[in-house]
Structures are given as structure tokens and as C-alpha cells.
Amino acid sequence: MKNAHRLSGAARHVIAAVLTLVMLYPIVWLISSSLKESSQVFVQANSLIPQGWHFENYAIGWKGFGGITFTTFYANTLFVVILATVGSVISSTVVAYGFARLRFRGKKLWFICMLLTLMLPGEITMVPQYIMFNELDWINTYWPLIFPTFFGTPFFIFLIMQFIRTIPYELDEAATIDGCNRFRVFYRIIAPLVVPAMMTSAIFSFYWRWDDFMGPLIYLSSPSKYTVSLALKMFADPEAVSNWGAMFAMMVVSLIPVMLVFFFFQKYIVEGISTSGLKG
């Protein structure tokens, strides 16, 4: 029995190791390609060990194009990501508190409407939003990428609302007896207790905004305002020779913030999602 148990455990570890290698292969290939000469990237596509280590790809890639370095692109991206994340998390928490704790006319109808927006593909609202932002003269600004987040994100609203429902309502009643109004109950009681769900929402928002390509592509036209995702696309020039080595090098660098956020805050992802599903 012990031998069978050991074999079973060894088999599980082998399967896990194989799956890990399969999932990590694209990242390893990307790092390897970032150190190859541009003309050899696809010639040596099956080799993970470069014939020559071209670390200068990172310096060349960081210079960017048109006199605009990746320092500018990273600054633009962080500006959009931070403001959009803060707006999305704060507004979603407030709306979630309203759905979870307040009683008002048409509550179920508005909740259904919110869920319907969650199910709508982004392509459906793309044209109406562009027309609206064009009328506001917000094209080629960051407002279309930031302003809508201050009205809540359906997925985050639902996630935080489920988390709030796990909090005993007796805490609200006790705080009300002590003289707290609705705002103070939310600020002093609910908000500190839903930090895991808020952190989970912030992490997802960071991922989505950092990787967003379509939004900046539609609304930004000045290279000096480009985000990292658009800047990476500029390396691929169909009318000239693309510098694949520099492009892949900047792709590797663009992964660093995402990886750091995941490794430092992964416990909040697990805690926020698992606790939100304890009570419907």
C-alpha cells in the first residue's frame, strides 16, 4: 500500500511538472528569442539556446522609435492603469454595497441590468462609446480609457457584493445603534472587511488595463501618448524589416510588472475569490 501511494504521488508530481513546462514554454521561448539576433529569431525558432547572446536588444528596444523611449510608454501605461484601477475598485465597491445592503425601488431590475451588461460583448458597445466620446472631444486623450471605470465594473460589483453578503448584518445594526449613518457603516465597517475582494478586483483590473490593446488603439493617435501595448505593435513594420529581437525584449520587460503584482498579491486573489463564493 505504501509503495502504491508513493507511486501515485510520484505520478502526480510528474504530471504537474510536465504541465508546468508546457505552460512556461511560451515565456521561456520569448526570453530566448529576446536574446537572439533579429534575423535568427524564426530561423532558430526550435532552439531555446541562442547561438549568440544579444543583450543589446534590450537597450535598442528601450530607445523606442521616433525619439520616444519606452520610459514614456511605461509612464503613460501606469498613469492609465492606476487611475482606471482606483476608479473601478472604489466605484464598484460603493455600488456593490448598495446592492448588498440597501433597499430601494427597482433593485432587482437594476441588478439584472447590471448582469446583462456583464454578458454583453465589448464589440457591441464599441461604436456607441466612440461616437459619444467623439462628441465630447475626448479622442486622442486618456479620458475614454479612464472615465468609464468610475461608474463601476459589473464583474467587480458582483464579486464584491457576494463578499459583502458573507458579512453578518448584525454588524451594520450594531454600528447603527452606536450612531453611525449609512456612509460611516460603509466606511468603517464594510470597507475594511472587504479588502480581500477589493484587492482581487484591483489585481484583475491591473491585468486587464495593462494588457488592453483595443482601447488605446481606438482612442489614441499621438505616439507620445501610446501605451506599452501599442508601442510593442509599432516594432512590427510590414513595409520594412522588423526588429524582432528588440520587440521580444520589450515584451519580456512588459511582463515584469504583471509578474510582480501576481507574486506579491496572489494570496488576495485566492482569498477574495474563495470567500466571495461562500454565500450567494
From TrEMBL:
<keyword id="KW-0812">Transmembrane</keyword>
<protein>
    <submittedName>
        <fullName>Carbohydrate ABC transporter permease</fullName>
    </submittedName>
</protein>
<feature type="transmembrane region" description="Helical">
    <location>
        <begin position="185"/>
        <end position="208"/>
    </location>
</feature>
<feature type="transmembrane region" description="Helical">
    <location>
        <begin position="73"/>
        <end position="97"/>
    </location>
</feature>
<comment type="similarity">
    <text>Belongs to the binding-protein-dependent transport system permease family.</text>
</comment>
<feature type="transmembrane region" description="Helical">
    <location>
        <begin position="109"/>
        <end position="131"/>
    </location>
</feature>
<dbReference type="InterPro" id="IPR000515">
    <property type="entry name" value="MetI-like"/>
</dbReference>
<feature type="transmembrane region" description="Helical">
    <location>
        <begin position="143"/>
        <end position="164"/>
    </location>
</feature>
<keyword id="KW-0813">Transport</keyword>
<feature type="transmembrane region" description="Helical">
    <location>
        <begin position="12"/>
        <end position="32"/>
    </location>
</feature>
<dbReference type="Pfam" id="PF00528">
    <property type="entry name" value="BPD_transp_1"/>
</dbReference>
<keyword id="KW-1003">Cell membrane</keyword>
<dbReference type="InterPro" id="IPR035906">
    <property type="entry name" value="MetI-like_sf"/>
</dbReference>
<feature type="domain" description="ABC transmembrane type-1">
    <location>
        <begin position="74"/>
        <end position="265"/>
    </location>
</feature>
<keyword id="KW-0472">Membrane</keyword>
<keyword id="KW-1133">Transmembrane helix</keyword>
<feature type="transmembrane region" description="Helical">
    <location>
        <begin position="244"/>
        <end position="265"/>
    </location>
</feature>
